[in-house]
Description:
5 helices, alpha+beta
Amino acid sequence: MTQANGxxxxxxxxxSGIFEGEGCIHATKRGGAxxxxxxxDGDVMDRFHRAxxxxxxxxxxxxxxxxxxxxxxxxxxxxQVERFEYAQAVLALLWFGLGERRRMRAQEVFAAVRxxxxxxxxxxxxxxxxxxDLTAEGAVYxxxxxxxxxxxxxxxxxxxxxxxx
Length: 165
């Protein structure tokens, strides 16, 4: 076995092949980056998890089909990593074995994560409910009931101070 920093290079080469064939690189709803692999073979998924240094989580088996019934389908296992640093680390481990399309997708997702504006957008909206712009300067905040932009939040705080709330 050829090892570097406690990781088996043959296993990493095997894992990069699994990720190339079955893996997914995507942006999360919160604007981060995530990697995942789903398949029905639990032993293969456990080997993959060990090969990437046990980064991320391995969950399963999950039943498939209507209402969780099998209907002839094998249960699924899912490996996933959503933490930005771990996703970067796993991609760095597997990079040498990834194809051009996966590499381009990784660069696209990670570039979007690095350049996203501060604050949260509400499902792609560009303006708040009062019409204020939701840019980096108009970051969104959650109050007890509603999402508010920075300008609305200032008004809300001002009104609450006047009322003594």
